[in-house]
Structures are given as C-alpha cells and as structure tokens.
Amino acid sequence: MSRTKRDSLSETIVPTAEDMHKLGHRLAEKAAPGMIAALSGSLGAGKTTLVKGVAEGLNISKTITSPSFTIIKEYYDGRMPLYHMDLYRIDNFEELYMIGFEELIYGEGLSIIEWSEKAEELIPCSAIEILIDILPDGSRNVKVDGLEL
Ligand SMILES: Nc1ncnc2c1ncn2[C@@H]1O[C@H](COP(=O)(O)OP(=O)(O)O)[C@@H](O)[C@H]1O
Ligand SMILES: [Mg+2]
C-alpha cells in the first residue's frame, strides 16, 4: 500500500466538521462498487465524521455509528453497499479473517477502513489512501492519494 499514486495526490485544509461531511459527499459521488478507502489519522481526527458524510452522500438513511466494538458495519439501503470498518481494536490478522474482512473488501460495495494502518498488508495498493492530521488551529489537513476529491 506504500506505492504513491502521485498523479492524484492532493492536500486540502478542512476547517470544520461540516466541511468534512462535504468532503465525504464528494467521495460518495466518486465512489464505485469495489472501491476501498483506507483512512488513517489519530483518535478524533475526523475519520468517522468523513464516513458519515459519505453515507449521507450515498443516501444511506441509517445513522452511522463508530464500529469500534463490532469492527465492521454494513449498510445496504444506499446507492451502493457501504462497509464501514474500524480496526482500532484489532490485534492480529486472524481476527480479520474470522470476521470476513477480505470477502468484504473484495465485494461489491464501497469499503472505508478506519485505522487501516493496522492491516496494511491486507489492503490492495489500488486502495485510495486518506490521511487526516489535526492542525494546531483545530482544522484538519487531509491528504488524498489515488482519487481526485
Ligand atoms: N475540521 C474537522 N473535521 C472533522 N472533525 C472535526 C473538525 N473539527 C472538529 N471536528 C470534531 O472532531 C471530532 C472527530 O471525531 P471522529 O470523526 O469520531 O474522529 P475519528 O473517527 O478520527 O476518531 C468530531 O467531534 C468532530 O465534530
Ligand atoms: Mg472513528
């Protein structure tokens, strides 16, 4: 996953949580079945906020909650399936196999993976990489590699 897709590497300042939602909408507009977005960034960076925007953009009516304890949540009532994963509590790859991580990421939906750095070896290099950094003024710097947002 370390290969940089430099032709579409971008960096954006996202001032507020509402703007992060809007970025999620844009990601949803560009999403295609089978697409994988690997999110990294510290606790509270805004990963789940981005996913909420994506879900809204896909017309998913259910409220997105953080899948920290369940690891994977699947939503099927939108324009395409959304697989929302949070690997924060994953200790080893076996757990991921058990919960069907690989079947899902090679499935027909959009996979968005929080704490994707925990499964780097399992994520194909075609995945879009999104890195969120919290800046001192509270805004977020969002680097996107692999898709123009
Ligand atoms: N520019 C911003 N982008 C995203 N979230 C922001 C921003 N500014 C403030 N926030 C707040 O930061 C928190 C981010 O939480 P969350 O999305 O759950 O982070 P993560 O999933 O990365 O742990 C939310 O409470 C959100 O309202
Ligand atoms: Mg989160």
Automatic annotation (TrEMBL):
Pfam families according to UniProt: TsaE
Domain of life: Bacteria
Annotated signal peptide: none
InterPro entries named in the record: P-loop_NTPase, T6A_TsaE
GO molecular function: ATP binding; metal ion binding
Biological processes per GO annotation: tRNA threonylcarbamoyladenosine modification
Keywords recorded for this protein, A-Z: ATP-binding, Cytoplasm, Magnesium, Metal-binding, Nucleotide-binding, tRNA processing
A GO CC annotation given for this chain: cytoplasm
Compartments where found: Cytoplasm
Alphabetical list of NCBIfam families matching this protein: T6A_YjeE
PANTHER family assigned: TRNA THREONYLCARBAMOYLADENOSINE BIOSYNTHESIS PROTEIN TSAE
Family statement drawn from the similarity comment of this UniProt entry: Belongs to the TsaE family.
Name recorded for this polypeptide: tRNA threonylcarbamoyladenosine biosynthesis protein TsaE
Source organism phylogeny: Bacteria, Pseudomonadati, Spirochaetota, Spirochaetia, Spirochaetales
